Amino acid sequence: MAAALEVEGLSARYGHVEALRHVDLHVDDGELVAILGPNGAGKSTLMRALLGLVPTEGQVRFCGRAVPRRNPVAATALGLILVPEGRGIFAPMTVAENLELGAYLLKGNQAEFTRRQDRVLTLFPRLKERLAQVAGSMSGGEQQMLAIGRALMADPKILLLDEPSLGLAPRVVEEILEKLGDLNRSGLPIILVEQKAPLALKLARRAYLMSVGSIAAEIDPRHVKSHDDLARFYLG
Questions:
Q1: Helix (H) and strand (E) counts for the chain?
Q2: Could you name the CATH architecture of 1-79+156-236?
């Protein structure tokens, strides 16, 4: 299977602090890959580095094309779309306005805008009921749905999600992960950063375990049958 995303020797720093160290990974066409690891392992930095939001060294290629460094607008135009940790919605704006911002690169193509919005509202019917509602007044789960919906309005070629389950009730987490599974089964490659490893491994075809800014192991979810199996990967 062809690789949609190829990362070789990716390193990143915050000042004098090395946050990523020579990360190698790949995501194949149509694949959902989980990035696991404890707080401080470098998972969020990896997501930011893929989009050029932090200074990096190494190579990132998407569909065979180099992703420009320190140019998140160019990365977005290529189809790398991030749903950040904490959702990053525009709380004072309505749901409809948040979705419109996700499609800002369309530049007035109303037919395509309508197609994308219909896809989002079919995936998340609750957003359709709340188009006129101020986003900050919604529940945490609904805000996460909006964050994902806004990302889908950009028509991602690969979707990057950073801790989508953070702060949400288990029932809501299961609902959102089910929708992510639907998106992946439709052919959309996904990178899912998640601390709740058992949930992520239910969806993932492969997983990478990060520790102290590096890839510590690549995991086949079929080989993880229990928490003990997962602990063995964490402990090396």
A1: 9, 10
A2: 3-Layer(aba) Sandwich (3.40)
